[in-house]
């Protein structure tokens, strides 16, 4: 940040800086072994880890039972599409077994590795858009001299999500 401001001043240019807040993380858990091949048409269990030994393995994809990840599983219904690793892989919910467990079919395969991101487009997930870390980061960005001109909220789903950041900025 200081270098951006320094070089902009040297060039006589006004450069505006955008800070991007991380938002809640939705990730698959650890692996029991090597990356797990997801083959199109295969059926997998997709759920929250039942214990510390419940890792990703053939036939099962797991997520750590955080508040955010519990909300993600709860929000899914039959027909929901889940994108894994920035959309490189895709699974579709065939059955909601419980609020902690889904059955999915692989619709776009690949090799699943540990801690890859999960995204559920077009599904509202009941969790806060701003994490405690996001609030700390926003306060830091606003405390810079000069402050960051723009701040992005990565996981805004409704107006209240933006209002939280606006309240911090006021």
Global shape: elongated
* Terminal residue distance: 22 Å
State the low-pLDDT regions, or none. Answer: none
- Give the CATH topology of the largest domain: M1 Pyruvate Kinase, Domain 3
Element pattern in H and E: HEEEEHEEEEEHEH
Report the major sheet.
6 strands, mixed
Category by helix and strand content: alpha+beta
CATH superfamily of the largest domain: PK beta-barrel domain-like
Strand content: 25-35%
What is the number of independent domains?
2
Strand order of the largest sheet: 4-3-7-6-5-9
Topology:
Elements: H1 2-11, E1 18-21, E2 36-38, E3 43-48, E4 60-63, H2 67-75, E5 81-84, E6 89-98, E7 101-108, E8 110-112, E9 118-119, H3 132-143, E10 150-153, H4 159-169
Parallel strand pairs: 1-10, 3-4
Antiparallel strand pairs: 2-8, 3-7, 5-6, 5-9, 6-7
